[in-house]
Design brief:
single chain; 384 residues; alpha+beta; L,D-transpeptidase catalytic domain-like; Nuclear Transport Factor 2, Chain: A; 3 domains; eight-stranded mixed sheet; 10 helices; 31% helix; elongated
Length: 384
């Protein structure tokens, strides 16, 4: 067991259990075991089981410590070599929880996706399926600053949802649509559920289906679930879900789910932001020019709106522009986010302020942009 724990803990710092979160309390106990400080380990895990009596992993560690008084321990969940699926899942949970402390994230890097957040977004959530972790980023003048993170469970079959019932968590960019309180749900969802906007427009266009993808709590008899145990939802411990709630604006907060987060330096984030922002602004200027050919150069051949392909969209723009003597376009509340797993694909959202000689209009829009032959182009657009 000592070798197993040393592999888990590596260079973990010495931590004091009192008043710390479950991850750190658990790590305190495991670290003490790895250093043969059994009484200290038992004290730490005792405090954790008193605080969370339904925390199965903590009880497993406590059981090992009690067994260690009679015999040497070979691994976490000492079962004498017999395979046990439940014990294997608890070992996976231990690895992921301790990994969050020992395999620390670089302080000078951020997720590659958060290029620019409109000031109306106070926070963004980023899920790393490979690490069973949800990170909370505060929006500081458009720049992401990490302020919290939580252990999470994802789908039994991993990430990359394609269809109803595949037990996968979707990869993409979504919005927290609403909150369902416990009184509207069964105990399975614990302290409530934040609903996600899956499937989004791009999912639907790709033929992905399914519904009911939520960020929710855990049953009252279970503190937390294994890293891969849900039917596609992102699941937290109930106290963590409550803490997460302070960062959420229903109807606004973006949620980015990745198989494995790409981390980049702030300088790289700036470069990517400037690149995409320049393409968006050039599109705006070419629209103002009333030169329909220049405008359509910003659209992919596979472009779609809710009801039009590129040909129909182009004919409509040609007709509208011919009736204008001037056009002014303002893009307010602009947000730019790269899509996970696709560095040349982005979600752009804004409030469009359209002014012309015979029409004034404000329309919230979402556009998906794709880089084609080195140039950013609009591939899908939705007016909200």
């Amino acid at each position: 067991m000592r070798r197993f724990l040393l592999t888990l803990l590596l260079a973990a710092p010495t931590l004091h259990a009192a008043g710390l979160d479950a991850d750190r309390q658990l790590a305190t106990s495991l670290l003490a075991i790895s250093q043969s400080r059994m009484p200290e380990a038992l004290t730490a895990v005792d405090q954790l089981t008193r605080q969370h009596p339904n925390f199965r992993l903590a009880h497993l560690v406590k059981g090992d410590l009690l067994l260690a008084r009679a015999q040497p321990l070979l691994t976490l969940g000492n079962t004498g070599g017999a395979r046990n699926a439940d014990i294997d899942q608890l070992r996976d949970e231990a690895r992921q929880r301790v990994r969050a402390l020992t395999d620390s994230l670089p302080s000078d890097k951020v997720p590659a996706y958060l290029l620019n957040l409109d000031e109306g977004y106070r926070h963004a959530l980023v899920v790393d399926a490979s690490r069973s972790r949800l990170y909370v980023y505060a929006n500081r003048a458009g720049l992401p600053i990490r302020v919290a993170d939580f252990y999470v469970t994802i789908g039994k079959a991993g990430a990359g949802k394609q269809k109803e019932g595949d037990n996968r968590t979707p990869i993409g960019i979504y919005t927290i649509s609403s909150f369902k309180p416990p009184r509207e749900l069964t105990d399975f969802y614990g302290s409530g559920a934040f609903t996600l906007s899956y499937p989004n427009e791009w999912d639907t266009r790709q033929g992905r289906n399914g519904h009911g993808i939520w960020i929710h709590g855990s049953p009252s008899n279970t503190y937390s679930r294994a890293p891969r145990a849900s039917e596609g939802c992102v699941v937290l411990a109930n106290d963590d879900l409550t803490r997460l709630g302070q960062y959420v604006q229903t109807g606004k907060t973006p949620v980015i789910i990745a198989e494995q987060i790409e981390w980049v330096a702030y300088e790289a984030l700036d470069a990517r932001r400037n690149d995409l922002a320049a393409a968006v602004d050039q599109w705006r200027q070419d629209w103002e020019s009333r030169d329909t050919e220049r405008l359509l150069g910003h659209y992919s051949k596979s472009f779609r709106t809710e009801s039009q392909n590129l040909q129909a969209f182009g004919a409509s723009k040609q007709k509208v522009n011919a009736a204008k003597s001037w056009i002014k376009i303002g893009l307010n509340n602009l947000s730019l986010m790269l899509y996970p797993e696709r560095p040349d694909f982005a979600l752009v959202s804004f409030v469009q302020d359209y002014q012309s000689n015979n029409l004034s209009d404000r329309t919230p829009k979402r556009q998906f942009w794709s880089r084609e032959n080195g140039r950013w182009k609009i591939i899908h657009e939705t007016s909200l």
